[in-house]
Design a protein that fits this description.
Blueprint lengths: L2 H9 L3 H23 L2 H17 L11 H36 L5 H16 L3 H12 L4 H8 L3 H18 L6 H9 L13
Protein backbone atom coordinates (compact mmCIF):
# COMPACT_ATOMS: atom_id res chain seq x y z
CA UNK A 1 0.00 0.00 0.00
CA UNK A 2 1.38 3.41 -0.96
CA UNK A 3 0.24 6.80 0.38
CA UNK A 4 -2.34 7.57 -2.32
CA UNK A 5 -3.86 4.10 -1.99
CA UNK A 6 -3.96 4.58 1.78
CA UNK A 7 -5.68 7.97 1.43
CA UNK A 8 -8.41 6.47 -0.75
CA UNK A 9 -8.86 3.59 1.67
CA UNK A 10 -8.95 5.97 4.63
CA UNK A 11 -11.66 8.07 2.96
CA UNK A 12 -13.75 4.90 2.83
CA UNK A 13 -13.29 4.31 6.57
CA UNK A 14 -10.50 1.71 6.41
CA UNK A 15 -8.79 1.72 9.83
CA UNK A 16 -5.89 -0.24 8.38
CA UNK A 17 -5.08 2.84 6.30
CA UNK A 18 -5.15 4.97 9.45
CA UNK A 19 -2.66 2.55 11.01
CA UNK A 20 -0.47 2.90 7.92
CA UNK A 21 -0.24 6.67 8.37
CA UNK A 22 0.18 6.32 12.14
CA UNK A 23 3.21 4.07 11.72
CA UNK A 24 4.61 6.27 8.98
CA UNK A 25 4.28 9.69 10.67
CA UNK A 26 3.76 9.27 14.42
CA UNK A 27 7.43 9.41 15.49
CA UNK A 28 8.20 12.26 13.10
CA UNK A 29 5.28 14.29 14.39
CA UNK A 30 6.20 13.73 18.03
CA UNK A 31 9.78 14.85 17.32
CA UNK A 32 8.46 17.90 15.44
CA UNK A 33 6.10 19.05 18.20
CA UNK A 34 8.70 18.34 20.90
CA UNK A 35 10.98 20.93 19.29
CA UNK A 36 8.32 23.45 20.35
CA UNK A 37 7.05 21.99 23.61
CA UNK A 38 10.21 20.42 25.07
CA UNK A 39 7.84 17.88 26.58
CA UNK A 40 7.58 14.50 24.86
CA UNK A 41 4.56 13.36 26.86
CA UNK A 42 2.44 16.39 25.96
CA UNK A 43 3.70 16.14 22.36
CA UNK A 44 2.47 12.54 22.18
CA UNK A 45 -0.98 13.64 23.41
CA UNK A 46 -1.11 16.36 20.75
CA UNK A 47 -0.04 13.99 17.96
CA UNK A 48 -2.59 11.37 19.01
CA UNK A 49 -5.27 14.06 18.80
CA UNK A 50 -4.02 14.96 15.31
CA UNK A 51 -4.61 11.39 14.18
CA UNK A 52 -8.08 11.44 15.74
CA UNK A 53 -8.78 14.58 13.70
CA UNK A 54 -7.41 12.87 10.58
CA UNK A 55 -9.88 10.03 11.11
CA UNK A 56 -12.80 12.35 11.83
CA UNK A 57 -12.06 14.48 8.75
CA UNK A 58 -11.16 11.59 6.45
CA UNK A 59 -14.00 12.42 4.07
CA UNK A 60 -12.47 15.83 3.37
CA UNK A 61 -9.08 14.48 2.33
CA UNK A 62 -7.85 14.98 -1.24
CA UNK A 63 -7.62 11.46 -2.70
CA UNK A 64 -4.74 12.58 -4.91
CA UNK A 65 -2.61 14.07 -2.15
CA UNK A 66 -0.65 12.76 0.84
CA UNK A 67 -2.09 13.82 4.22
CA UNK A 68 1.43 14.62 5.46
CA UNK A 69 0.93 18.40 5.26
CA UNK A 70 -2.47 18.08 6.96
CA UNK A 71 -1.02 16.06 9.85
CA UNK A 72 1.85 18.46 10.49
CA UNK A 73 -0.47 21.49 10.26
CA UNK A 74 -3.12 20.09 12.58
CA UNK A 75 -0.47 18.97 15.12
CA UNK A 76 1.08 22.44 15.12
CA UNK A 77 -2.37 24.03 15.52
CA UNK A 78 -3.20 21.69 18.41
CA UNK A 79 0.06 22.69 20.10
CA UNK A 80 -0.72 26.41 19.68
CA UNK A 81 -4.19 25.81 21.13
CA UNK A 82 -2.66 24.05 24.15
CA UNK A 83 -0.36 27.03 24.76
CA UNK A 84 -3.29 29.46 24.61
CA UNK A 85 -5.37 27.28 26.93
CA UNK A 86 -2.53 27.04 29.46
CA UNK A 87 -2.07 30.82 29.49
CA UNK A 88 -5.83 31.26 29.89
CA UNK A 89 -5.83 28.77 32.80
CA UNK A 90 -2.99 30.59 34.56
CA UNK A 91 -4.78 33.93 34.15
CA UNK A 92 -7.92 32.41 35.63
CA UNK A 93 -5.94 31.09 38.59
CA UNK A 94 -4.52 34.54 39.25
CA UNK A 95 -8.03 36.01 39.07
CA UNK A 96 -9.25 33.45 41.60
CA UNK A 97 -6.43 34.45 43.94
CA UNK A 98 -7.43 38.10 43.72
CA UNK A 99 -11.06 37.19 44.32
CA UNK A 100 -10.09 35.11 47.31
CA UNK A 101 -8.07 37.92 48.79
CA UNK A 102 -11.14 40.13 48.77
CA UNK A 103 -13.59 37.51 49.99
CA UNK A 104 -11.53 35.95 52.80
CA UNK A 105 -9.82 38.91 54.47
CA UNK A 106 -11.91 38.37 57.57
CA UNK A 107 -10.93 34.72 57.90
CA UNK A 108 -10.60 33.63 61.53
CA UNK A 109 -6.95 34.23 62.42
CA UNK A 110 -6.40 31.00 64.33
CA UNK A 111 -7.93 28.90 61.56
CA UNK A 112 -5.94 30.79 58.96
CA UNK A 113 -2.70 30.17 60.83
CA UNK A 114 -3.42 26.43 60.78
CA UNK A 115 -3.94 26.57 57.03
CA UNK A 116 -0.73 28.54 56.60
CA UNK A 117 1.22 25.87 58.44
CA UNK A 118 -0.47 23.22 56.29
CA UNK A 119 0.50 24.89 53.03
CA UNK A 120 4.07 25.42 54.29
CA UNK A 121 4.34 21.67 54.87
CA UNK A 122 3.02 21.04 51.36
CA UNK A 123 5.58 23.40 49.86
CA UNK A 124 8.36 21.84 51.93
CA UNK A 125 7.50 18.44 50.43
CA UNK A 126 8.10 19.70 46.89
CA UNK A 127 11.39 19.18 45.02
CA UNK A 128 13.94 21.96 45.75
CA UNK A 129 13.65 23.48 42.26
CA UNK A 130 9.86 23.63 42.57
CA UNK A 131 10.14 25.26 46.00
CA UNK A 132 12.53 27.87 44.68
CA UNK A 133 10.34 28.73 41.69
CA UNK A 134 7.13 29.16 43.69
CA UNK A 135 9.02 31.21 46.29
CA UNK A 136 10.42 33.53 43.62
CA UNK A 137 7.04 33.97 41.92
CA UNK A 138 4.51 34.01 44.76
CA UNK A 139 6.65 35.23 47.63
CA UNK A 140 9.00 37.65 45.89
CA UNK A 141 6.79 38.48 42.91
CA UNK A 142 9.37 37.59 40.24
CA UNK A 143 7.90 37.03 36.75
CA UNK A 144 8.20 33.69 34.99
CA UNK A 145 10.59 34.96 32.31
CA UNK A 146 12.87 36.49 34.96
CA UNK A 147 12.82 33.27 36.99
CA UNK A 148 13.82 31.38 33.86
CA UNK A 149 16.78 33.71 33.31
CA UNK A 150 17.82 33.65 36.95
CA UNK A 151 17.72 29.85 37.20
CA UNK A 152 18.96 29.22 33.65
CA UNK A 153 15.91 27.16 32.68
CA UNK A 154 13.14 27.54 30.10
CA UNK A 155 9.87 29.38 30.80
CA UNK A 156 8.09 26.09 30.06
CA UNK A 157 10.01 24.48 32.90
CA UNK A 158 8.95 27.31 35.22
CA UNK A 159 5.31 26.83 34.19
CA UNK A 160 5.54 23.07 34.67
CA UNK A 161 7.01 23.42 38.17
CA UNK A 162 4.32 25.96 39.12
CA UNK A 163 1.65 23.51 37.94
CA UNK A 164 3.11 20.84 40.23
CA UNK A 165 2.93 23.18 43.23
CA UNK A 166 -0.58 24.40 42.40
CA UNK A 167 -1.82 20.84 41.99
CA UNK A 168 -0.47 19.82 45.41
CA UNK A 169 -2.08 22.83 47.08
CA UNK A 170 -5.38 22.40 45.23
CA UNK A 171 -5.55 18.75 46.31
CA UNK A 172 -4.95 19.72 49.93
CA UNK A 173 -7.61 22.45 49.89
CA UNK A 174 -10.06 20.79 47.51
CA UNK A 175 -13.04 21.86 49.63
CA UNK A 176 -11.73 25.35 50.35
CA UNK A 177 -10.76 26.63 46.90
CA UNK A 178 -10.51 30.36 47.48
CA UNK A 179 -8.28 30.11 50.55
CA UNK A 180 -5.20 29.82 48.32
CA UNK A 181 -4.79 33.55 47.80
CA UNK A 182 -4.83 34.43 51.46
CA UNK A 183 -2.41 31.64 52.28
CA UNK A 184 0.13 32.52 49.64
CA UNK A 185 -0.13 36.25 50.30
CA UNK A 186 0.48 35.60 53.99
CA UNK A 187 3.49 33.48 53.11
CA UNK A 188 5.05 36.44 51.32
CA UNK A 189 5.83 37.88 54.74
CA UNK A 190 7.35 34.63 56.05
CA UNK A 191 10.44 32.66 55.25
CA UNK A 192 9.55 29.46 53.41
CA UNK A 193 10.82 26.29 55.12
CA UNK A 194 13.91 24.59 53.78
CA UNK A 195 13.44 20.91 53.18
CA UNK A 196 15.53 18.27 51.42
CA UNK A 197 13.46 16.44 48.81
CA UNK A 198 13.43 12.72 49.46
CA UNK A 199 13.70 10.45 46.45
CA UNK A 200 11.48 7.40 46.37
Amino acid sequence: MNELEAVKALRKGDKTALGYFFRRYYDRLVAYITTYSNDKTSSEDIVQQAFINLWEDRGKLDPERSPRHYLFSIARNRYMDSVKNEKRRLRLLDELWEEALQSRVDEDREELEKRIEHVKKILASLPPKCQEIIKLNKVEGVKYKDIAIRMDISIKTVEAQMRIAFQKIREAFRNDQLILTVLLRKLRRRKLPRCQHTRH
